[in-house]
Design brief:
Chains A, B: Pfam families: GH97_C, GH97_N, Glyco_hydro_97. Chains A, B: Keywords: Hydrolase, Signal. Chains A, B: It comes from Telluria aromaticivorans. 2 copies of one chain form a homodimer. With 679 residues, chain A is of the alpha+beta class. The first copy, chain A, has 13 helices and 37 strands. Chain A is 17% helix and 36% strand. In chain A, the strands form 7 sheets. In chain A, strands 6, 7, 8, 9, 12, 13, 14, 15, 19 and 20 form a 10-stranded antiparallel sheet that branches. In chain A, strands 1-2-3-4-11-17-16 form a 7-stranded antiparallel sheet, with no helix packed on it. Chain A has a 7-stranded parallel sheet with strand order 28-27-24-23-22-21-29. Chains A and B meet through helix 1, strand 10, strand 16 and strand 26 of A and helix 1, strand 10, strand 16 and strand 26 of B.
């Protein structure tokens, strides 16, 4: 027997004013341009739900809102409206770095305050921010004596997709660092997904489900309840309920970017807009830039992280990279394997790492000084083996050391065999748990905010997903959080030929990725070859956004391909503007970006295994100006499946805003263009 | 970057003997009749996996085994074989009550002892019991100083179904009491499922995934990882990791009943066989029997649970039921709404129930005595509102009271709005959590073992699922745990016409169900009608097994249909043998059962919305004997969609074991037969 029965009985006793199945709209609002609208309803049992329409057509059907709590009666049902308010907002803010300098933040906010009269009048607010290109909503828990602490067992938020849809997804909670291959499947066939979860409805509407401002809360995964109905699933904690908070707090924003096509998804600034403004003040010490590193040779098995005959992080080898960086205008030199501890079984525990003691053959202070003398900076490296307990003990000393040496950015790593990291549980004891748990989220945040105190920027590998927190803490420069180019060295299989065309409209919707592009040699370990042409390696610098970009290949390989290498030297990593010219998920993508430091534009286009010709209207260029287009394109016979993957043509053309270029991409190919105004 | 990369590096340093992707068979065994076989493998990273073949064909592909722990390094990878042993077992045991008196337990056991040499030599054993009709396996944690307590974050057990398959499933963790409609979908489209999860592979093989001996552990749900690969998902605890155990312990058995058809699934005794033998000794005080009750009238809205003008549980009304029971040979009279506390908002909290104080208009001692004087027993009723904290405080006193009054069985209820029950968390504080959590499982178990001390039998409504624990504690007579007949009173919609034909091969694989059949009036509240003919109501007594069965309709309705009612009076609830004659999931099912107290056989057959004629070979009857078949069949024009749903023909025939009857079932119909040997 269920309460359904008793809802009727209770109705008879007038406890509810409506039968349990009756729906009543209690609030609604539309976006400023009237593209999207939200309706909030309550049923006879006082259960809250919302639905979303786009241009009048329902795209998210009635979807539940609420929580099961562990320490109190649930926040699900028994709700009645206290009040709702609606307000319109329009402002523009400036990013210290990013894909565009100025971001417009135009939305209508709908605040819905509800209470559970029967449960001591407990209150909850659901706030919707309704943009023309997406919707975010979050729950606000006020400070209230009836609910001083909140222990969340389940978040019940649902997303009922009304039409049959195709999903591009990765499983949640599996490989740490979100390094699963991106899968394509009918939405009704997906498992538990991490976000962004991108879906294309049968009518062509695209939706990306994600979250914004994931701070001190468990990561939201999405599980299918039934059919095409998704429900939030909070990453479990090893210490108790998924989320424990005290006093007033807000949840992360649950976000839906909604557009007519894939390009429209990418053009939305919803997730950044829903984050808090910069809390660090002057962040001129955060430096978008390019770097090289003692790194790829280890992936090729020609060097090792640990000390020994093949140790890569030696003083001599690092000097070679510093010299190469200085000569070619790269600001950073990353060195992995510089510190003691790599001999141990670190991938399963990581307790033996020192973050302050270099190997004897690595002269850390000397190299830091040498780099500075050449106008270059070492990039620090902290591989934790996902032993966060051990790392946090050394973190302050390690940050201090780097700051003292003038190292101003750190790549951190959390490699662990699939599953769990070791962090401090809520009871203060060490606990193995999911990276995505509230405890995990707290650590990644702490690593960044503590780093800010030393004016250090962070590039997190094997991270929790990006939710736009970089707006608030601009020293969180980038992260990995997907399969990077390293999989082409040793992946079994390597990255698929359509990987970038999928990444752009899935993982990249969350934020920058340290993709480590630019391996012009197109070769991994043991004879493995990339599913890519050389031109595509260049295009990736524009297509896959990161404020710090690696030139990942070995210096000697760059010396073999000076023409191609010129583009890598030229391309900036900080942009005044970004336009997605076209794109179909997993098929192709073309992105144009304007340099922030010059009037130059850059274009990157990538394709899957299909060769194709994509028109590129140059209407983003300044009218009336002539530009020199430096074009790096696939040769006529280029093909990622043959030795002709190296066929690259570099040519220049004079163009204007009126021109339409035809970008011919080889199978597995790409194209990169620099557009420089003529004087 | 992931550890995959480093597995190669580590291989180079000889930490592993095989590359991570190489598989090595470390143990294998086949069932006694060589129908099913299991292979256990380890890969180069020491990860454990198993696979299952049926008659040489792989049906479960390589599937992971292991755990993520919260308080220690995971038990996943780094394993090497210590030893494996195999042994054959064949015995027969007797049930105090059940679907058959004697149960054969014939299997080959394969014990695989593994250790993690690098992790302090931690040991784990996986034990497979391989039957011809199914496989169970469990993990055994030995007492070991390196792992004194075990906190399980995730159980990683997988079930990789090799062929496309159709699933019949219900979502896990949603409606308490497992009262979801049974859904049919391609296996790849299911959400998080409770078990039994029944699937039919494209080659016709049927598999039911379930568990046996769920004691002091979290309930296993099944989630889809990807495609058709399922993984155990332990019901979350509000107090920390899903499972916390000390010292040596074993997990529940993970079970797969495997057969060529649906009938074969039902005929398997795997789940009972994998439970511990009876721990209660003499259980002659456990009484399979039939009962009536002050119950259906509340569902029809003509009575109320709480006191007032329509209060149903009055002394006078109860006497009427006692008289009716005595007159018609029913042993029990259930009375709901007898105790104080129903006025409050109990379905959301349940704190106000008294389990010892009757309403003033209900003379509990007097009625108990009156019943006994008539050879009838009151059946106790404990509705907890899922407030287990409050219930456990009163449980002992409540049991004591009933025992004193001669009440020897109790129907308990745990109605709560979807989601959570209130129980005592691991920290001793009240916690709202899932019924299926380790805490929930512990309570349901405690309610039964404590009841045994007072020789009380339990019929749990809104229970955790059955996993055969009734073998160990035979006073756990039955439970609800699915949509019962009550949904026909007020369900929106009521039970579907194919409900029973689905139940038999899904929910009923787990154990008895208090289905409350026999509503001959075929009518719910507010003019709702059953999707059933009257004949089907009779068939349900045979088709849906329970050692205690209700005659759920109002006495006055039985008086209207004396011919049909005779079958309800005759049919026993305890069986010497059971044969599934035929069945297709969701379409039809025919079951023949031999009475344990007489030489009579009973047959029940039910169909979905299709009328059909099913042959019934009577070869189960004693050869050479003549039987009188008392046949209760759908009339020729019977149809569940029309008023002719009441068309019932009762006829008798003389038959022998050589006869084959043709059972003609109307759309939505059924047939019930009693076979009595002629002298």
């Amino acid at each position: 027997m269920t309460i359904r029965r008793f809802a009727i009985v209770l109705t008879a006793s007038c406890l509810f004013s409506l039968p349990a199945w009756a729906q009543q709209v209690i609030a609604s609002a539309a976006s400023p341009g009237n593209v999207l609208s939200v309706e909030v309803q309550v049923d006879g049992g006082g259960k809250l739900a919302y639905g979303i329409k786009r241009r009048g057509k329902e795209i998210i059907g009635l979807s539940r809102l609420g929580f099961n709590l562990a320490n109190a009666r649930k926040l699900d049902g028994g709700f009645s409206l206290r009040k709702h308010t609606s307000s319109e907002h329009d402002s523009t803010w400036e990013q210290p770095w990013g894909e565009r300098q100025f971001v417009r933040n135009r939305y209508r906010e709908l605040r819905v305050d509800v209470e559970q009269k029967k449960h001591d009048g407990r209150q909850l607010t659901v706030v919707f921010r309704i943009y023309d290109d997406g919707i975010g909503f979050r729950y606000e828990f006020p400070a209230q004596p009836q609910l001083k602490s909140v222990e969340i067992l389940d978040e019940l938020t649902e997303f009922a997709v009304t039409q049959p849809a195709t999903a591009w997804w990765i499983p949640a909670g599996e490989l740490p660092g979100l390094e699963e291959e991106i899968r394509k499947a009918p939405l009704r066939e997906i498992g538990i997904a991490n976000t962004p979860l991108t879906v294309r409805l049968d009518d062509g509407t695209h939706i990306a489900f994600h979250e914004a401002a994931l701070v001190d809360y468990a990561t939201m995964w999405l599980r299918k309840v039934d059919g095409q109905k998704l429900r939030a699933m909070l990453a479990p904690s090893p210490s108790g309920p998924a989320v424990v908070r005290q006093g007033a707090f807000t949840t992360p924003w649950r976000t839906l970017q909604i557009a007519s096509d894939a390009a429209g998804l990418y053009m939305s600034d919803l997730v950044l807009n829903l984050n808090e403004p910069n809390k660090l003040g002057d962040v001129s010490w955060v430096k978008p830039s390019k770097f090289v590193g003692v790194w790829w040779q280890m992936h090729l098995n020609s060097g090792t992280w640990n000390a020994g005959p093949k140790h890569a992080a030696t003083t001599a080898n690092t000097k070679k990279y510093i010299d190469f960086a200085a000569k070619n205008g790269f600001r950073g030199v990353l060195v992995e394997g510089w510190n003691k501890g790599w001999e141990s079984d670190w991938g399963h525990g990581g307790a033996d790492f020192s973050f302050t003691q270099p190997y004897p053959d690595f002269d850390l202070p000397g190299l830091a000084a040498y780099a500075k003398s050449k106008g270059v900076r070492l990039i620090g490296h902290h591989e934790t083996g996902a032993n966060i307990v051990a790392y946090e003990k050394q973190m302050d000393a390690a940050y201090k050391l780097y700051a003292k040496l003038g190292v101003d950015s750190i790549k951190s790593g959390y490699v662990h065999e699939a599953g769990t990291a070791l962090f401090t549980g809520r009871d203060g004891k060490p606990r193995y748990g999911h990276y995505d748990s509230q405890e995990g989220v707290r650590h990644f945040q702490k690593a960044v905010t503590e780093a800010a105190k030393y004016k250090l920027s962070i590039d997190t590998h094997e991270p929790v997903k990006d939710t736009g927190v970089r707006r608030t803490y601009p020293n969180w420069l980038t992260r990995e959080g997907a399969r990077g180019v390293e999989y082409n060295a040793w992946g079994n299989p390597p990255n698929s030929v359509d990987h970038e065309a999928k990444l752009v409209f899935t993982r990249m919707l969350s934020g920058p990725m340290d993709y480590t592009p630019g391996v012009l040699s197109l070769q991994g370990a043991d004879g493995k070859v990339f599913n890519s042409t050389q031109a595509k390696q260049l295009a990736n610098y524009v297509v896959i956004y990161s404020p710090i970009q690696m030139a990942a290949d070995l210096p000697e390989n760059y010396e073999k391909y000076p023409a191609a290498f010129k583009f890598i030297r030229d391309v900036p990593t900080d942009w005044a503007d970004t336009r997605v010219v076209n794109g179909v998920i997993g098929k192709f993508a073309t992105i144009a970006r304007k340099d922030r430091a010059s009037p130059d534009w850059y274009v990157g286009a990538v394709t899957d295994d299909q060769g194709r010709t994509l028109p590129l209207a140059l209407d983003f260029l300044d009218k009336g100006k002539r530009y020199t287009a430096e074009i790096y394109r696939d040769g006529d016979g280029a093909d990622y499946r043959t030795a002709r993957r190296f066929d690259l043509v570099v040519e220049t053309k004079t163009v204007t805003a009126k021109d339409v270029l035809q970008l011919r991409l080889a199978p597995g190919g790409g194209q990169a263009i620099r557009l420089v105004p003529q004087l």
